[in-house]
Specification:
alpha+beta; seven-stranded mixed beta sheet; about 150 residues
Length: about 150
């Protein structure tokens, strides 16, 4: 019985350690592609949890916008930012639902559509963070609230 408890405790500790490791690895931006409406950031990874992803964006967004020349749309606030997993790298379009970039030559100018996070500006100037299963809004006061659970 003690052997089974030790194994279970070891698995729990390993699981917690893995979660903290995955949630705290650095994120590297591989490339940025943009048009007049959307900037697409291709990254190697983002933190595991939504909260850490938002914290990463809030900490790095000014530097990212400056370094990669991400601009605002006149009169409409900041452009939409989509953060994608770079995954298998640039691929040909083929017969798959891939996102292709017009700012680079083909045939390998597409990625698999794996959106990790969307950062949008609302009409009232709030910043919205959209994930697979949740939407968070950061109001003018800087507070972050979970707005909705996505299904």
């Amino acid at each position: 019985m003690k052997k089974g408890f030790g194994l279970a405790a070891g698995l729990v500790v390993a699981g917690i350690a893995a979660y903290f490791y995955l949630n705290n690895r650095p994120t590297h931006i591989i490339a940025v592609h943009q048009n007049e409406h959307v900037a697409s950031l291709l990254v190697d990874r983002l933190p595991f949890s939504d909260g850490k992803r938002v914290a990463w964006w809030l900490k790095h967004n000014k530097a990212i916008k400056t370094q990669y020349g991400i601009t605002s749309i006149e009169g409409r606030g900041a452009k939409s930012i989509y953060v994608y997993a770079f995954g298998k790298g640039y691929l040909p379009e083929e017969d798959k639902d891939r996102l292709c970039f017009d700012d680079m030559p083909g045939p390998k100018n597409c990625i698999d559509k794996e959106i990790l996070m969307m950062v949008l500006r609302t009409r009232d100037g709030a910043q919205q963070f959209i994930f697979d299963n949740a939407v968070y809004v950061q109001g003018a006061d800087g507070k972050l609230m979970k707005k909705a659970q996505r299904e």
